[in-house]
Amino acid sequence: MAAAKVSMAITEHEGAEQERKPLVRHYQAQELLPTRRPLLHPLLDKHISAWAVVSGIMSIGLGVVFATTAEFNSFLLIVFRVPFFNGALLCIAGLLSNLLYKEPRLLPVCFRANLACLASAVVGAAIMCVDLAMVTQPHTHSHKKTEVLVLVVTVVQMILSGLLIFWIHKEQQRLRTSA
């Protein structure tokens, strides 16, 4: 919504004859006032939602690599399909967060999607920690390194989701108090 500081002075058109022709009068805004940007726009300008999508794709990719190189029943990470689920949720939440520029009414949906993403990442990190503690076979040492990498990506997902949840919650509170 645009706002303007309008000077209400009447300006006469130069060169107009006063005898036969009426004076041409018009109003002109002197200065436009800037619109107030939503609280989320500075955060979204830093492309955190794009980082969330990239992190989700990376999680899915690491899950594919891990699932193709390890035995299916040897790791809980593969059995519960943690990286695939977390990656898909984070991609959806990142895309929804990216849509907040054009559609601010998606704020509650985006908030819930990021909450679901954070919850699944916490559960996934717990499963991976249990998995890393339980596996002691020497031939799975290289798979442990890959699982640690998946755990690091999951922690990054938790941080990104937490940031988005925090800022979306602040924006929701600001909208409630201003309405």
UniProtKB/TrEMBL annotation:
Stored Pfam families: CD20
Assigned GO CC terms: membrane
Record key words, sorted: Membrane, Transmembrane, Transmembrane helix
Basic and acidic residues bias (residue ranges): 11-20
Transmembrane spans: 48-69, 75-101, 113-136, 148-168
Compartments in which it is found: Membrane
Region entry Disordered, spans: 1-20
Membrane topology: Multi-pass membrane protein
Keyword check for Transmembrane: yes
Keyword Ribosomal protein recorded: no
Major localization class: membrane
Protein's recorded name: Uncharacterized protein
